Amino acid sequence: MKDEIIRKGMLTAGIIFLVFFCIGPFIWMIVVSLSDSPDFLVRGQYIFTLKNFIDILNIRNLHFLDYLRNSLFVAGLTSIFSATIGAFAAYAISRIDFRGKILILVSVLGLSMFPQISIVGYLYKIMSSIGWINTYNALVFPYIAWTLPLSLWLMLSYFSQIPSEIDRAALVDGANRIQVFSKIIIPIGAPGFLSTVLLLFMASFNEFLFALMLTTDFRARTIPVGIALFEGLHGEIPWGYIMAASLISSIPVILLALFFQRYIIRGLTGGAVKR
Amino acid sequence: MKPLSVKVENLSKEFYSLARGRIPALENINLEIGGGEFFVILGPSGCGKSTLLNILAGLDKPTRGDVFFSNSPVFSTEKRIFLGPKQRNVAMVFQSYALYPHMTVFENIAFPLKILKMRKNEIKKNVIEAAKMLDIFHLLYVKPKELSGGQRQRVAIARAIVRHPSIFLLDEPLSNLDAQLRVRMRSELKNLQRRLNVTTIYVTHDQIEAMTLGDRIAILKDGNIQQIGAPLEVYDRPINTFVAGFLGTPPMNLINANLYSKGGKLFVQIGDIKIKLDWKKWGKLIDLKEKECIVGIRPENIGVSSKIEENKVRIALIEQLGNEALLYFQIENQVIISKPSGNRQFKEGEIVNLLIDKDKIHIFKKNGSRIGGNE
Amino acid sequence: MNKEIREALLFILPLMLFILFFTLIPVIGTFFVSLYRDVTFLTRKFVFLNNYVRIFRDAQFWKSTLFTLLFTLASVSIEMVVGMIFSLVINERIPLRGMVRGIALLPWAIPSVISARVWQLIYRYDYGIANYIMQHLFGVSVNWLGSYSGAFFSLVLADVWRTTPFVAIILLAGLQTVPETLYKQAKIDGANIFQRFFKITLPSIKPIIIVALLFRTIDALRVFDIIYVITGGGPGGATNSLSLYSYRYFLLGDFGYGSAISIMLFVFAFLISFAYIKLSRLKEIAL
User: Fold this and answer.
1) Same structural domain for residues B84 and B184?
2) Same domain (yes/no): B174, B303
């Protein structure tokens, strides 16, 4: 069974490689965040401290909590609205036969191919002129539009797995379209909806370019912008603070990834991954 | 509710697909179904029967035509009327039962009543009544995924009857059940329909179901109605070779043959087999210019005897069915099946004489349409 | 008749409105802006294709294009290989499989900016861990972020780290569609593990690989986040991706030129996708 031994060997090597590859940088992040100074490798001395965490949570001027609040709010609103709007549209496209269906799908797909940079320039002008720069609106509305193609694609793949005979049975039972949607399709498709919300939340939480251009200060800025532009109080890049902030900001998504990996994977693959 | 009659006039339906263009699904369908009748639409897969049912339910729109329920239109192209399923008060049972997986049996059956905004205790009364009628009272609080196929089907039927619909549509409801269950459910369905006196339109590809359940049957092929009539009528006087071959197990023998007359007598010949036709009966119908025809005769109307006379053949194969046997003969590349009555045991390779019941012969033109026979 | 369309419209309308106002109109707007001299404090003037002529003469633009293309090529090819390895690993029935899958997702789950910052620190010349390891193993320090080749390598590695999980998951879905019986048959026919992989696994998931390649290519062409954070486009504009280059001009207030660059980026992405789909005959696979 030499073949089996090779296989087991490669599998073990693969697992080890995977785990170290993925976790390595995190370990570095944690170690630095708990260190008094980031150059401990060179100095040869590691001083354990919680100062970085305490500072970013307490020093108002660093605005860390503001960024966190903004991010959670914006990502939360975006994911729920986008998933819902996507679900509505996906229902119509998968169930109702109407002309222009393909056209809509193709154009939505096509529009999602545009690089964000091609959109954000003019978007900035629009937002400037209606005075939305640096407000939650400036982020939530574009985010919803930006995540809708993904939302639509995900909900479509879920809905297409619900046999249309169930719709027809409900219609014959006297329900109208909205009742079929709310009483039948959504309850059955709830896990799919959850997966979609999760993925959209993660996408919005992590988004950078729009937030960079459309917000200017802590009142609406999100975590990615905050961490990218993090300046210390004294000029030198405050790695300790940055790593601490990174760690805290990563915790929500890390928890989501670890506990909901099944839903996330299901979402990314449209339910194709079962085992 | 009083049972409604159904009339379909000149109904056609075409589908459009990106890949294959215009696909005709139904062509010029005309039907009249009486109130309380059990009407079966029979045909092979893809013949359009499910499409027709969906149109009757209001789930699909025809391309052209009119549909009336007791003389009031539910769909009319020219008057631009289209009633949706909700307004038609029909009930439907699907091949896959289409039970709502996230609801219990009770909630499934109650669903249409909830939509009608019936009062809670009224709903409960009706659901229990339907459940008892279908013998699933003990399953009311279970979810569909824990039920067997037969039980799911009863739930689907209960959901359909709980609204006291005026028309009952069934789309191959028995095809997912195993053979024994199917036989039982057939009689239960028939009894149920008689009790409720609902106009029932039943779609299937199984001709035994059609023969046993229908008051009248319509045979559908490639979107066209071939023949409508009571089961025995269609069985005994099929209008073409398709219908002739579709009904009956084993199917009717349809054999290419030649007509000729000799010495003032009329014969039809298959290989070495000659069958003399009664001139009185057949003379007017036969046009001897067309020498080739198709002879139809059911296996049960072909007997065999060991007394060798003019129509002798060799038994090529025997299939034992237990209570009877099927004998296969080969004549000039065509296979003829006989299902003789009686207890005589035969052996493969044996030479016997074919006894063809002349009264039961059907003759069809080469294109399949009926000339006459079995009158 | 019309009721159906009215119902459908009701369900689709919200989606259409959002995409219309916040995607389609900005795109069209950007396209029009690129035809103008649109710089803050200067009067706006219609200059038609002037910006594009300027682009053709702009050496930095072509340097950025080259960098973007090379970056995409390097990044995507490595991702596909590592992603394939990961997907094979997480496809197996190993103990704590859920945990391992969760771990595999982490690099992709966290904000790209955060992973960029961590890599930026890893690559830091004086006290980053990368040079710490290099010193101990080879006795040299590498100028990861200050030299062109160093920066290129650093960015590619950081991007690979971040996006491999995504590729792995997509390929995983493909792996699961291969019927177990195929492998059993191959084992009976005497194929060893490598032969099974190359002769059965790879051909079976070819469509998925093509789709993953397409998506990742388009994404890599648009890269912005990690480059902004780790090198800022340096050293000396050597690692400017086209997105970043365009952004620079927006920052300067030159919306006309910036928009034109972003339109060029889209054109490149479109041409590459088009060629890609034609070459791989994706249409046949989809239909």
Assistant:
1) yes
2) no
C57 touches chain B (CB under 8 A): no
What is the Cα–Cα distance from B30 to B20, expressed in whole angstroms? 27
Q: Which of A106, A109, A195, A261 to mutate to test the interface with C (most CBs of C within 10 A)?
A: A261
Extract the tokens encoding A166: 């169930």
Q: Tell me the CATH number at B331.
A: 2.40.50.140
Q: Contacts of residue B115 in chain A, CB cutoff 8 Å?
A: 173-175, 179
Residue pairs spanning B and C at CB distance below 8 A? 6
Q: Which residues contact C73 (CB under 8 A, 6 or more apart)?
A: none
Q: Residue B359's domain spans which residues?
A: 253-373
**Statement to judge: residues B170 and B278 lie in one domain:** no
Q: Copy the structure tokens of residue B10.
A: 């000149």
| CA-based nearest residue to B25, from B5, B4, B51 | B51
Cβ(A66)–Cβ(A73) below 8 Å:
no
- Number of structural domains (chain B) is 2
On whether both B168 and B258 belong to a single domain, the answer is: no
Domain end point (choices B185, B220, B244) = B244
| φ and ψ of B304, to 5 deg | -130, 150
Pair B282, B196 in one domain: no
Among A residues 13-42, those touching chain C with beta carbons less than 8 Å apart: 14-15, 17-19, 21-23, 25-26, 28-29, 32, 38-42
Q: Is the Cβ of A175 closer than 8 Å to some Cβ of chain B?
A: yes
Residue B293 carries which DSSP code? Answer: E
Nearest-by-Cβ selection for A3 from C7, C102, C193: C193
Single residue among B201, B221, B244 that ends a domain in this structure: B244
Q: Check whether residue B154 and residue B186 sit in a common domain.
A: yes
A168/B96 touch (CB, cutoff 8 Å), yes or no: no
Q: Structure tokens of B116? A: 């009608």
Name residue, tokens 């972020």: C145
Per-residue burial over B113-136, b = 16 or more CB atoms within 10 Å of its CB, e = otherwise: bbbeebeeeebeebbeebbebbeb
Per-residue pLDDT of chain A (275 residues; tens, 9 = 90+): 678 888 889 999 999 999 999 999 999 999 999 988 888 887 777 888 888 899 888 888 788 899 999 999 999 999 999 999 999 999 999 888 777 788 888 889 888 888 999 999 899 989 999 999 999 999 999 999 999 999 999 999 888 888 888 999 999 998 888 899 988 888 988 888 998 999 999 999 999 999 999 999 889 999 999 999 987 656 678 888 899 999 999 998 888 888 888 777 877 776 666 55
Question: What's the domain range around A173?
Answer: 64-231+243-268
Domain covering C59-249+257-286 assigned CATH 1.10.1530.10 in the classification? no
Do residues B231 and B319 both lie within one domain?
no
Residues on chain C touching A242 (C-beta within 8 angstroms): 117, 121
Chain segment C21-78, per-residue pLDDT in tens: 999 999 999 999 998 888 888 888 888 888 999 999 999 999 999 999 999 999 999 9
B23, B59, B87, B203: best mutation site toward chain A, by most A Cβ within 10 Å? Answer: B59
Q: Which residues of A touch B57 (CB under 8 A)?
A: 168, 172
**What are the structure tokens assigned to A10, written together?**
């490669």
Instruction: Report the run of H or E that residue C181 belongs to, with start and end.
Output: helix C180-188
Q: How far is A119 from chain C (nearest CA, A)?
A: 5
Put simply, whether B61 touches C (Cβ < 8 Å) is yes
**B1 in any annotated domain:** no
Give the domain CATH number at B125: 3.40.50.300
The alpha-carbon gap from B31 to the nearest alpha carbon of chain C, in Å, equals 24
- CB contact, 8 Å: B80 with chain C? yes
Q: Which of B91, B100, B116 comes nearest A184 by C-beta?
A: B100
- Residue A144, SS3 per DSSP: helix
Nearest CA in chain A to B112: A173
Chains A–B, number of C-beta pairs less than 8 Å apart: 57
Contact B92, B170 (CB under 8 A): yes
| B292 and B222 together in one domain | no
